[in-house]
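Morning!

As promised:
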Amino acid sequence: NAGVTQTPKFRILKIGQSMTLQCTQDMNHNYMYWYRQDPGMGLKLIYYSVGAGITDKGEVPNGYNVSRSTTEDFPLRLELAAPSQTSVYFCASSYVGEGKGYTFGSGTRLTVV
Amino acid sequence: GEDVEQSLFLSVREGDSSVINCTYTDSSSTYLYWYKQEPGAGLQLLTYIFSNMDMKQDQRLTVLLNKKDKHLSLRIADTQTGDSAIYFCAANGFQKLVFGTGTRLLVSP
């Protein structure tokens, strides 16, 4: 049972480039989330999804897009990367959104130069 | 919406007890959680408490909940150097958890 898998683990992007951060879970969780964690800061919610075909904005959605075509996958798209998007990105999933807590991936460390 | 606050830093000696504190604002939160993040890793669920409980014990971990003051604490008994990490408190908001900023615990030999 792999849990939540994120790829890539590390990436360096140039300003203006685009990329997709992949997240997949094999626990049949209905809720999935994307967070970013800046140095010395807590977690900021970017986007979340309560099921396939349904997504919603979190606290810091600007500069990002998501889609949820299947239960398993929740990719995060960065368009026109900016230095302010340098961060560690975490994907998480949960079964009903509360009660059992989240399962987190190991993160993607992104640097925009 | 829900807001969760924690102190940023705690330093203890190996063998001492550590107490990490958290306050939250939404009294309707039904579950409260503690997560641990080791360097370079994601967050791992340590323990959680249901809002109708005052205390939960799990080996070296004790969670205390004061619903009146909306205060949650995590006590780690006999703290070890391997407990050095960032500890996040979280409370459930609508459809999602709200995390505190994390408390960095440093355990010195």
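The CA atoms of residues 25 and 72 of chain A lie 5 Å apart.

Hope this helps with the figure draft.
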